[in-house]
Every structure is written in C-alpha cells, then in structure tokens.
Amino acid sequence: MTSVKAALLSFVMLSAIVVCGLGIYSADAANNHQAVDGYGVTAALR
Prior knowledge:
single chain; 46 residues; elongated
C-alpha cells in the first residue's frame, strides 16, 4: 500500500468515526436523552 492510499484510508476512517459520533449525539438529543461522554465532562457542566 502506498503512502497516499494509506493517508486516504486513514482520512476516510476518521471521517466515518466523526460522522457516526455526531449521528449518535444528535439522535440522543432528539429523544431528550442526555449525552454521556464517559468522562464526566457533561455532568460537570450541569
């Protein structure tokens, strides 16, 4: 695998992770669920 293909694959994989994360967050927000980040940051803001 060339370095260009590896960089493109990495970019696509990271983009998919970000898009899925935003989808899960917005689905939780639309159903009046509190988003939980697992680190207590959102709980500390409330």
